[in-house]
Amino acid sequence: MKFPIQKVKQAGEKPFFFEGEVDLSTLEEAKNDIRQISPVEVTGQAEMKGEEIIVSMTIKGEMILPCARTLADVPYAFQIEADEYFNTSQYYTEEDDSEVHPLGGEVLDLTPYIKENVLLEVPYRVFAENPENTPPQEGKGWGVVDEKPQTEEKVDPRLAKLESLLDNEEDNK
Predict the structure, then answer these.
(1) Is residue 99 one of the residues assigned to a domain?
(2) What InterPro entries does the record point to (predicted)?
(3) Is there a contact between 76 and 46 (Cβ–Cβ < 8 Å)?
């Protein structure tokens, strides 16, 4: 999403409003959990205050993430409220911890900042709502272990002979 800085300057005291769709499909190819992302809707406003431009925007969309338990596709809708600060001064240099981005040129490109905000919104883990679509719980040589304690105690077969010796010793007493 790009627009000329001149439009923001022409708005004067009033904010410059913008809206549109941004294709973020490049996030699917990056090494993250996003399997698919639909084009996001971006609406917002930009205000000029001295040499700074303050952009307030709302980003809405939906992404497909893997379920933490089953790796099934889980749709995740999001709405992000974000503020970005830009400086148009040619003498401004970005400081290490500064949240103000320098602008070089006459066009304000919000796409990298939209991507950054979407990546920050990706949750640590999501879970599928339908447990019927879960993969099998057992396979050849493996099984899913439940966190609940086992009710029956299984004796290790290597120790079974020792247990029988202990039983014989108690019977002899």
Answers:
(1) yes
(2) YceD (IPR003772)
(3) no
